[in-house]
Structures are given as C-alpha cells and as structure tokens.
Amino acid sequence: MSPNVILVMRHAEKPTDDHDPHLSPPGKERAEKLATYIPDTFGKPDFVFAAAVSKKSARPLETIEPLAAALGLDPKTPFADAQYAELAQLLLSDAKYANKLIVVCWHHGEIPALMRALGAKAGESSVAGMTIRNEVTM
Fold first, then answer.
1. What is the domain class of 5-12+21-102+109-134 according to CATH?
2. pLDDT of the residue at 136
3. Is residue 131 a contact partner of residue 125, using CB atoms and an 8 Å limit?
4. What is the rounded CA–CA span in Å between residue 117 and residue 12?
5. In angstroms, rounded to a whole number, what is the distance separating the alpha carbons of residues 56 and 20?
6. DSSP alpha helices (H): ranges in the chain?
7. What number of other Cβ atoms are within 10 A of residue 47's Cβ?
8. Does the CA dihedral 72-95-7-50 come out positive or negative?
9. How far is it, in rounded angstroms, from Cα 46 to Cα 99?
10. CA nearest 130: which of 104, 99, 93?
C-alpha cells in the first residue's frame, strides 16, 4: 500500500546571500502562511518531511516547521537532499504511510528526481492510485 497523497514542494524563499542557510523574511512569511494554506487546501497532513539540515541549508525544515507546529506533528528529516531515492523508498514501502497525506519539502534541484523516484512521469499527477503533486506556489 502506498500513501494516498504526497504533496511535494520547494522550500520557501532564500536570502540574497547564498551563504545564509536560512529563509529570507519573505520566506518566513510564506512558511507561516503554509500552516493554514496546506490544511485548508489539501486537508490535514498525517506526516511532514523535509530534507535534513546541512551547513548549506535549513530552509526545507524551516519551511514546514510552522505547519508541523500548528498541527502538532513532528517534522521528519532523516534524509539529506541527495537521498531522495531513500525517502521515496520509505514512503512507498512502509505500511505506516499507507493511505496517508504526506507533505515533503525539498530543495528544488532534486525535486524532479524525487518525483521520478516516487513513480511520477512528466505531466503525471497520479501513479497507481496515489496522487503526487508538486506544489510550489500559493
């Protein structure tokens, strides 16, 4: 069994300083808005995942922290950005994610590969009864 919906999104806006690993003020504002936008638009997520914090970026986790806090969820960050295949394998094979709504926040450079690892082909939004959405705007 696989998740019912996996909502994949890019982290919120980064600062102009490429060495700053955190969200910019507009990014923080977007992250706060996601705390209501996602549940109002897609329903309450059962799990939230983000790429692990590294020296280069904490932005995926910072993007989903307000959502997780608002919903009383523990954000999961077990995989580094390049470990998207491992994340996909976990989500598709672990029974605790079956028929669940899952939010994944990742770095934009790896999102196409993550989508393919989840089984999506270009232009597809449904794979074997599971909906995979790449949402980056609101």
1. alpha beta
2. 45
3. yes
4. 22
5. 7
6. 25-42, 59-71, 84-93, 111-117
7. 19
8. positive
9. 10
10. 99
pTM recorded for the entire structure: 0.89
Residue spans per domain, the chain? 5-12+21-102+109-134
pLDDT one digit per residue (tens) for the chain, 138 residues = 677 888 999 999 999 998 999 999 999 999 999 999 999 989 999 999 999 999 999 999 999 999 999 999 999 999 999 999 999 999 999 999 999 999 999 998 898 899 889 887 766 555 555 555 555 444
3-state helix, strand, coil in the chain (%, to 5): 40, 15, 40
Q: Give me the amino acid identity at 71.
A: L
- Report the C-alpha gap between 13 and 60 in whole angstroms: 10
